[in-house]
Specification:
The structure is a single chain. The protein is 72% helix and 0% strand. The chain has 7 helices and no strands. It has 193 residues and is mostly helical. The chain is globular. The relative contact order is 0.15. The protein has a single domain, classed as Vanadium-containing Chloroperoxidase, domain 1.
Length: 193
């Protein structure tokens, strides 16, 4: 059963990384999936939160950072170190077939920390800020999904790595949002009492 799943994963990888490529994505995806590309967006979210919510905005920023940090730690230190799946670009049996558009990376492949981190952030923001600003919900989730897809497209992860990373991040984002909303409600009730 596991062999069949891994075979399907490699077939999907060959489609996404090899057959379904185009010049635009070849040029854009190495930058799109790079976390440094999104620093202006992160700073914009932080500035908006501080401007709109003042001290509560600072708590929100800290909660987002904690959520992403937790997702990254669970993915990198929990899954990657224990599963030890080689990246497609590290796998000697596949290296000739991989269209590598960026550096391969030195860590293991399962789960994708990029996917975990971005889905954790997106889910957390959707469930918190998204309650007030409903229009940000789908764009944030599509953004996280596109970054996860970019990991496969550039040749550094298998599809199941990013799917698992996305689910892991969404779960952590969901849990952290529930905790954050509960603590925010408690602080608000204490301030009113």
């Amino acid at each position: 059963m596991l062999d069949q799943i891994l075979h399907l994963d490699q077939q999907l990888f060959h489609l996404l990384n090899g057959e379904w490529h185009n010049a635009l994505f070849d040029a854009v995806m190495p930058y799109w999936r790079d976390k440094k590309t999104w620093i202006p967006l992160y700073l914009l979210i932080a500035a908006f939160s501080l401007y709109r919510f003042r001290l509560r905005g600072l708590y929100f920023i800290l909660a987002v950072a904690l959520t992403v940090g937790l997702a990254d730690t669970v993915s990198s230190k929990g899954f990657k170190k224990n599963v030890q799946r080689l990246r497609p670009c590290q796998n000697t049996e596949m290296q000739a077939e991989v269209r590598l558009l960026t550096g391969c990376g030195r860590s293991y492949s399962f789960t994708s920390s990029h996917a975990a981190n971005h889905f954790a952030m997106a889910t957390f923001i959707v469930l918190t800020l998204g309650r007030l600003y409903r229009r940000i919900r789908w764009p944030l989730l599509l953004w996280a999904g596109s970054i996860a897809y970019g990991q496969v497209y550039v040749g550094v992860h298998y599809p199941f790595d990013v799917i698992a990373g996305g689910f892991l991040g969404a779960l952590i984002g969901f849990i952290m949002a529930k905790v954050y909303l509960r603590l925010s409600r408690v602080r608000l009730e204490e301030a009113v009492a």
